[in-house]
Every structure is written in C-alpha cells, then in structure tokens.
C-alpha cells in the first residue's frame, strides 16, 4: 500500500467513526488538501496569520503540524481585526493580549479529538443528536481577587484585604454547541433558538458554538478538522459568574452569593506552586445538594462549610459548577445543562417594595436582613435542573416547588445568556415559591419555630403542605415544647421530652425528663436524645396530629387530622382553644397565640391558615383496653370483649378467631390491642351494662356458656356468635357527636357471609346527638347524660415486643368510644 492509500484509509475510518453519515461527500471523494496538517492548512491559506501567530506563541506549532487527533475552531484575520476594534478585554491589537488571554482563545477552541460538525453531537453508541457540551483543551483558571469582588458573607472576610487565589470552579469550561441533529433530536424549535439567541434566526444545518455561528465547516486535515467561526470565541463563564457580572442581575446575584464559600484545593495549590506561586488556592463553591466542590449529606440534609461546620440552607445545585450534570446517576454533563430564570434588578426591587415580597420586608426590615433559610426558597424556585426542559416551547410545563405551573411567558424574557453550564434567562418578573403562600411559611420565618420547621424538611412534609389544591389548618408549637413520650409510658420511668433546636449543629435534640403518670408532674432533665431517627419518628407522629385538611373555623368542634386522629376546637370570643386526646385525658387545653392567614381569598394564592401554640397537642395515650377496663359503666361489655383464651390454648388459629384483644408478639402496644384494627380511625359503641344483660337474657351466650358446651362444635358456634356480636359494635370511621347534622352509613367489622360484604350501621344526628339504625332494623342512641361519649383512644404498635423497651411508634389506630342505650344486632 502506498503512502496516499494509507492516509486515505485513515481518513475514511475517521469519517466513519465520527460522522456516521452514509451520504457524507468525502466517503466517496478524496479531498484535495488531504496531505496538509491543521497548521499547514492555516499557514498556506494566508487568511489566518493572526491565528498562526497565536499557535506559535503558545508552542502548539509542532502539535498541530504532526499527525494526531484535533478539532480546531479558528477565525480569520478579518475577524480578528473586528475583535480588536471591540472586545470585552479592551485590547486594541494582538500584542496587547496577555498570555492567559491567548491561552483562553486557543485552548477553548480546541477539542482533543477529531470531529466533524455533526459528529460533535454524537455520543457513545454511537447515537446522534445527544451531546450539547464537550470538554476542550482549556484548563482551570486561577486569579487573585480581593475586596468587593468577593461575596459579601463571613466566609470571605479574612481574604478581603490581602486577596485570595481563587478558581471559579475546579473543572474547566466546556464548549457549548447547537447543531442540526441535536436540535432535531431534542425537538428544539426555530422559535426556541431565536429566543435563546436573543432574536437571531437560523437556517437548516446552521451550527453554533455558544452564540457564534460556524461559517465554514469540516475542513479535513491530516491530523483532524478545522471549523471557521464568524467571531473570536471567548467562552462565557458559568451561570453564577455571568449573573454576577451582568449589570441587570446584580441584585439576584447578591442573593446567590450568600451561598458561596471558598474551599481549599490541595490539587490546585500544588499546581500553582509548581509554577512558582507560594499561596494556597481555593475553589469557589456554592452550598447546594449537587456540586463538584461542596459536600452534601443527604441523610442529615446539610452541607459542609469550609470550616467543617454544617448549614441546613442551600441551593438546588451549584450554579458555578462548569461540568454540572442534570442527573446525579444517569448520563453525563454532555447531554444537558441547567437553567436559571434571573429577575432583573428592577423586578426584584418591585417585588420587595410593592409586590408580595413586601411581607418579607415588613418582617425583616431589609432584604439584607432576610435569613438564608428564607431566601434559599426564593432563589431555588428560579433554578431549573434541566435546560432542555426549559426551552421556551416548554415554558408551560415548568412547575414551582408545589408542582404547579410557574406561569413563565416568553414576554417575561428580557435577554438570554448561554453560559458554560446553563442558560440564564433574564426575566422582568419574580416567581415567588409556593412556600411563601403556604401554611408552612410561618414556620420558616419564625425564629422560635425551628423544631417543627426542621421536622417538615427532614420528613419531606413540605411537598404535602405545599399543595395549593387543599385547604390546611396547620397547628405549630413554638420551640422548647414538652411532649409526653408514648413509647416510654410502659418503661420503668415514663418520660416527657422537651424539644430544642441546636443552632450549632442545625439539628433538633430533646432533653429527657421524668414524667409522673398519676400527677402529670415533669421533673428536671436526666438525659438528652440526639439520635435523629428517634426524634424524627416522634416528630412525624406529632406533625400528622397537627395538620387538618379543612377549615377548623367552620363551626364544628371535632376535626380529623392527617394521621387519622381527632382534635377538639372551642371558641370564646376571638380566642381559640385546642385540645388533643392526651390533653383531654389530663383536663388541659391550649390557647392559640397567633393566626397567620395564608388563604387564597386573602392573598390571591394560598392554602389555609396557620395557628401558633405554646405547646403541641398530645394525641390520646389510653388504649381501648385501658379505657374499658377502668370504666365501670363499660364493665359487662368489656367482660365479653376479654374473651377466654384458656379455651384455645392448643389452637392458635381459633385463639385468634375467637378473641378481640391480643398482644402482638413483635410490635407491642400499651397493653392489649384490638386485633382487627389497622392504621385507620374507628368508632366503638359500648352498650350499657343493663343492655348487655338484656342481650344475654335474650340468648346471647357468655364465655361461661362457651366453656360449659359439651362438644367442640357447640363451643365454636357459641364463641362465633359472641365475636360476631361484638365486632358489629366496631365501625370503620370515627364519628363524633358534634353540632352539624349527619346522615351516613358505615361498615362494621362483622362480615355478612351471604354477600361477602360487611354489615353496616346507618347514622343520623345533629347538635350533639347520634342515632344508630342496624341492619336488622333495630335502633340505639348514644347516651350523653354521664359524659361517656366522644372518648378518644389510641391503640399503639411500638418497635419492640416488650413495651418496656420501646423507642419508636410503628403504627396505631385511633378510636372514639360512645356509650349507647342498647346493643346492636345485625340479625333479628
């Protein structure tokens, strides 16, 4: 094979693997300039003398003269002449270019691989039209910065006078390109392109590097390809830097920069010192969940600061991360980037002075006083993780923190900056987060409600409470509150915990105090709980009991909570009193200290009201077994419920079938639990002792009758009759005697074996009365003369087989108990 054939074989292979285009011209035609290297081509052409000088000055002559694999984006002398007339560096001629500027121009336009234009968008596979960004020969740049150039926060203060050697990111700036195959593959429209390029129009097969058009493409050389640009390529920095330096986004930048900090880099320091430097080098990182510089702890939901402490307020991602990845686990930086909708200075000023942000100024006095844990929500709502999902043609699909449409319109776009790691849409409006309109917001802005705010974030209740579809009544206790710990009540020493917020660790802890179950007295602290999992378990239970879906000011007395429990609300003039089941057990109630109106009717957007309390409401602590066993008026019905386990000691199946109460062998309760209740809410109707005796006299067997039966068949028949009778008094859904009228039917726990459905009870009532009609046509009414109605109970299941060692709540059932004047029968 002669030399020409060998070279042509190499070129054909190169075209095949990089372009993968069956119709490409050079697959069947030998180019005339095949024998020239990149350097030779540029030198012989005669129109690239400035670029040749650039190559020579940076000692790339030999590299670009020999065989290799390079792609070079060049500009001709005429373009350089225009550049020296007007450029961001202010240089007027080539000789004024600094070494670093020369390096930036050359290295940013060089890819260490041979790629045709459309090959730029091809990813491994090969799959066309996927790649948006590629690395170049550019390296990380370090500069000395000081004074007002540094962010205005405490992490930078020690460098403000003498300066800091700083890299804006530890990764190099990649090349961003827009190509026909890529735009087609990603359904990017011509109008999308026009908006992204600030009004520019494109033709089919146009190619752009950042916002610079390729005017001549695919010049094949012996050692790679040359593409000629219309303008000199000075790659823009990352989104954070572009926003920082753009005059119209200075105010938004000041919000972003609150989350920036300098992180020491041993790698860059070593490289700097190899070049003769003596100082340490730092990397600018932004507190965020995803960063190439900052460490995020997903378990604790905190980020590490340069001094080793942690902060709990941070951004969605690091806007300064050049090689930002749109997904943590799938793909690479090449296939997508991020986007930020950055409001103009005027838009933010209007938002804080006359817009809905005025409430923040009323609360804090000035923007600079608004804490980061409040502002991070506003900034994050303007950050999008996927650029391709924010194309103008997809604006209507962009949602906010409540997963509702943000309402972005193309008319909001003032201009667009295409940066190294994302698109910056400069907008003439502000998009407040749904959080600011939600019932959660008072927890965010109040310094004395840190505990519940921490719990909301740690337990991901924010997604639930951000919904603008529902109306919530959210009950918020202030910090340092006391909570009787259900899991401790069967310990040798029952406990009450006082919940506090640790500002150093940005975490919650609880001081442990002895609790006297008889006098309800609470002693001095004897221990501290810092285990996050244990604290979150109890806080989750509290949160479930402090959220009501609905308006608690609509005239009722009893309201069901998110977790299935019930709370009692009463009013005296403008004062609102609240009590949970545990509070009622101790004859206490809580007075609402403050009310935040977060309703849509008042504010234009919102989802309810928030009520601030000094203490949390306590859910019921007594089980059904405990209440019935200690209430003499329930004695005869309780005797039936207790059953007779001695009758079935050798048969576990029948022991379970013919019993109501049981002890779970793996998840203990307070004492005995009702066997068939699940994680739901129920009503138990307890007939008077007299009514039970009437039932027995009318033929209802007792457990004594079961024991006296002469054969097994008779014994089981009588036992089943008792159990089915008892289960008919347990109703799905907790129904309370209350003011509003009621007419409804609910299933019981007794199965109709003929229809394979559960027998029902039909209820009617109003103004604290409740009447029951049974499946057999009988009736009964709830007795109110002795106060044995609306009794709240809760059957717990803990995390251990022995309640004396329980630490967390696994699940529970809420039950309301009413005394009724007659027994309930599903059959005549």
UniProtKB/TrEMBL annotation:
A family per Pfam: Fasciclin
FAS1 domain location: 35-233, 621-824
Xref: InterPro entries: Adhesion/Biosynth-related, FAS1_dom_sf, FAS1_domain
PANTHER family: FI19380P1, PERIOSTIN-RELATED
Full protein name: FAS1 domain-containing protein
UniProt source species: Candidatus Ordinivivax streblomastigis
């Amino acid at each position: 094979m002669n030399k020409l054939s060998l070279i042509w074989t190499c070129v054909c292979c190169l075209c095949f693997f990089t372009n993968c285009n069956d119709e490409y011209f050079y697959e069947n035609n030998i180019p005339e300039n095949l024998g020239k290297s990149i350097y030779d081509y540029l030198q012989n052409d005669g129109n690239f003398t400035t670029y040749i000088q650039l190559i020579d000055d940076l000692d790339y002559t030999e590299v670009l003269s020999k065989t290799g694999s390079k792609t070079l984006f060049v500009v001709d002398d005429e373009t350089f002449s225009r550049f020296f007339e007007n450029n961001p560096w202010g240089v007027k001629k080539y000789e004024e270019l600094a070494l670093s500027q020369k390096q930036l121009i050359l290295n940013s336009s060089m890819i260490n691989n041979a790629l045709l234009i459309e090959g730029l968008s091809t990813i491994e596979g090969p799959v066309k039209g996927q790649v948006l960004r590629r690395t170049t020969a550019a390296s990380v740049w370090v500069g000395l910065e000081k004074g007002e150039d540094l962010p205005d926060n405490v992490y930078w203060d020690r460098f403000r006078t003498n300066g800091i050697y700083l890299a804006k990111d530890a990764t190099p700036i990649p090349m961003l390109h827009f190509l026909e195959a890529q735009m087609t593959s990603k359904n990017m429209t011509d109008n999308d392109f026009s908006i992204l390029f600030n009004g520019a129009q494109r033709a089919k097969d146009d190619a752009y590097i950042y916002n610079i058009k390729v005017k001549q493409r695919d010049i094949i050389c012996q050692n790679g390809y040359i593409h000629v640009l219309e303008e000199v390529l000075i790659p823009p920095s990352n989104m954070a830097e572009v926003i920082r330096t753009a005059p119209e986004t200075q105010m938004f930048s000041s919000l972003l920069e609150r989350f920036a900090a300098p992180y020491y880099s041993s790698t860059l320091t070593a490289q700097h010192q190899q070049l003769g430097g003596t100082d340490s080098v730092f990397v600018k990182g932004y507190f965020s969940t995803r960063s190439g510089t900052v460490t995020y702890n997903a378990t604790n939901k905190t980020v590490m600061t340069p001094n080793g402490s942690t902060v709990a307020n941070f951004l969605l991602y690091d806007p300064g991360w050049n090689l930002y990845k749109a997904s943590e686990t799938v793909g690479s930086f090449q296939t997508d980037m991020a986007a930020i909708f950055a409001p103009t200075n005027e838009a933010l000023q209007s938002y804080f002075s006359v817009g809905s942000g005025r409430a923040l100024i009323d609360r804090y006095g000035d923007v600079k006083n608004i804490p980061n844990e409040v502002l991070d929500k506003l900034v994050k709502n303007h950050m999008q993780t996927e650029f391709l999902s924010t194309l103008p043609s997809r604006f209507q699909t962009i949602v906010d923190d409540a997963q509702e449409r943000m309402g972005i319109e193309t008319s909001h776009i003032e201009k667009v900056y295409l940066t190294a790691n994302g698109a910056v849409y400069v907008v003439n409006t502000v998009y407040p987060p749904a959080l600011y309109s939600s019932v959660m917001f008072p927890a965010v802005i109040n310094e004395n409600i840190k505990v519940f705010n921490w719990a909301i974030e740690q337990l991901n209740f924010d997604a639930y409470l951000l919904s603008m579809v529902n109306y919530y009544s959210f009950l918020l206790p202030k910090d340092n509150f006391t909570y009787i710990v259900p899991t401790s009540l069967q310990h040798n020493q029952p406990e009450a915990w006082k919940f506090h917020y640790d500002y150093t660790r940005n975490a919650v802890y609880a001081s442990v105090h002895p609790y006297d179950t008889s006098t309800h007295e609470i002693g001095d602290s004897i221990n501290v709980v810092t285990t996050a999992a244990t604290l979150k378990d109890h806080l989750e239970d509290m949160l479930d009991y402090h959220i009501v879906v609905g308006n608690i000011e609509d005239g009722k007395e009893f309201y069901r909570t998110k977790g299935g429990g019930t709370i009692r609300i009463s009013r005296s003039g403008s004062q609102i009193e609240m009590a949970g089941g545990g509070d009622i057990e101790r004859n206490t109630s809580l007075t609402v200290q403050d009310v935040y109106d977060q309703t849509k009717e008042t504010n234009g957007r919102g989802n309810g009201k928030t009520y601030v309390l000094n203490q949390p409401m306590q859910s019921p602590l007594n089980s059904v077994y405990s209440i019935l066993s200690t209430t003499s008026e329930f004695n005869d019905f309780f005797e039936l419920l207790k059953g007779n386990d001695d009758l079935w000691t050798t048969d576990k199946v029948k022991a379970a079938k013919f019993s109501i109460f049981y002890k779970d062998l793996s998840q203990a309760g307070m004492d005995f639990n009702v066997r068939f209740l699940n994680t739901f809410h129920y009503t138990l109707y307890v007939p008077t002792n007299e009514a039970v005796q009437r039932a027995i006299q009318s033929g209802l067997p007792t457990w004594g009758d079961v024991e006296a039966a002469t054969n097994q068949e008779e014994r089981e028949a009588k036992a089943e009759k008792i159990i089915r009778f008892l289960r008919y008094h347990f109703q799905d859904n907790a129904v309370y005697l209350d003011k509003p009228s009621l007419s409804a039917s609910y299933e019981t726990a007794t199965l109709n074996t003929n229809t394979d459905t559960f027998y029902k009870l039909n209820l009617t009532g109003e103004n604290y009365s409740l009447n029951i009609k049974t499946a057999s046509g009988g009736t009964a009414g709830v007795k109110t003369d002795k106060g044995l109605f609306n009794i709240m109970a809760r059957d717990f299941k803990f995390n251990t087989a022995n309640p004396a060692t329980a630490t967390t709540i696994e699940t529970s059932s809420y039950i309301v108990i009413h005394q009724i004047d007659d027994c309930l029968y599903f059959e005549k």
